[in-house]
Amino acid sequence: MTIRPMKNLLAALCAVMALGACGSLDVPDLNNPSRDDFVQKPTRQAVLSGATGLLLGRRTGIAAQNGYVAELGVLGREAFIFDASDPRFVTELLGPALDPGGPVFGGNFWLSPYANIRNANTVMDALDHVAGMTDAEKESIRGFAKTIQALDFLLVVNTHYDNGAVLEVNRPLGDPLAPIVTDLKNVTYPFIISLLDEGRDHLLHGGTAFPFALSTGFKGFNTPATFIKFNRAVRARVDVYRGDFVQALEDLSGSFLDVRADLALGAYDTFGSGSGELGNSLNGPTMFVHPSLIADADKKANGDLDDRVTRKTKKGAAGSDPDGKVSSDMAFTIYPDSNAPVTIIRNEELILLRAEANIGLKNYPAAADDLNFIRTTSGGLPPRFDITEATALDELLKQKRYSLLFEGGHRWIDLRRYDKLDTLPREYSDAPVHKQFPIPKPEMDGRK
């Protein structure tokens, strides 16, 4: 990678840590702490602060106007972003090409996840030298850090897909650049799975409590034992992406999937409006619902629209692109303010992942049970009695579309996996539906 190890890594850790914990770092120069200082002479508090910082670093770029949820929402025709000051939300994201030189558009979703992956490696390297920490505490931090790394790698893969990802990122400064790996099924997904499995093994030896603070978004998953359920949930998502449906069912059985529990049960990135906090910008006036979501929605027995539509959207002020070619007068209600959390993974998705795994295994009655549970429980829709081999996949994709609406690019990712991107609306007839983001220009320039 050309994202070299940052000369002053702890400064980067401080930048993502809105908790103010960096003031307690015991290093020779608090204004310029180096990576070597942190790794070779870490204090207990510095390592704990670094671990918490990984959660905060993970959310960087998730809920921004030009972030993961918003831009993938545009590509998947869940949303429009009409910003008079920057027409590229329409002209580039819906246009003919993504520019790898633009760090907030085509060149996006590379620097931030890799910076957080590097920080996780630094925290784990420091564990070999820190005093005043039990072996169980160290194991819990390793398990947590590797799980967060897996999420960051998955973000890179979800956005760059066949264009590839750099996997070997813990090389010393000055070593040759690691290759960009493009074999998703046989190399990249197994690499992410290995991180999750290693993380689980560490967590199994991590004692009864984490020694550092997790955000409120991990309520119910804030001990090593309960965090394993989150770890298995993420692995099940990767299993399904890879097409390993037998393993997906096994991992789902070890996750927090529960049809008796709230569908919102899960883990979330948290945001805030306080001093030094990172706010959620997905509630801004530039965000609009793609009209196809309303037009394609199923109706309840009384003729009303799917509850997920009426629950997650509302009539609002009209907006349009600079040329007035595309418009919308519907807004999202999912994120009411800048404090609203964003889903990482939750129970409703896990039930749908189980349905997807069963479809992949041709267990259509089992898949139909889960799909109808979501239809009736989340959508208020009548059950379908014709979910068969011919209809199951389309029904699954529709239920995922509305259940996971504007939560993390699921529509775009799912249609791409099933080679159905051409079914999405095209606002400009000469523009393709983009399949993936290009590798950023600075990364490619560094490899010449």
Characteristics:
448 residues; mainly alpha; Serine Threonine Protein Phosphatase 5, Tetratricopeptide repeat; two-stranded antiparallel sheet; 17 helices; globular
What does this structure look like?
The chain has 448 residues and is mainly alpha-helical. It has a domain at 248-423: Serine Threonine Protein Phosphatase 5, Tetratricopeptide repeat. It has 17 helices and eight strands. The strands form four sheets. Strands 1-5 form a two-stranded antiparallel ribbon. Strands 2-3 form a two-stranded antiparallel sheet. It has a two-stranded antiparallel ribbon with strand order 4-8. Helix 3 (44-58) packs antiparallel against helix 6, helix 6 packs antiparallel against helix 7 (135-160) and helix 13 runs antiparallel to helix 15 (392-403). The chain is globular. Mean pLDDT is 92; it is low at 1-32.
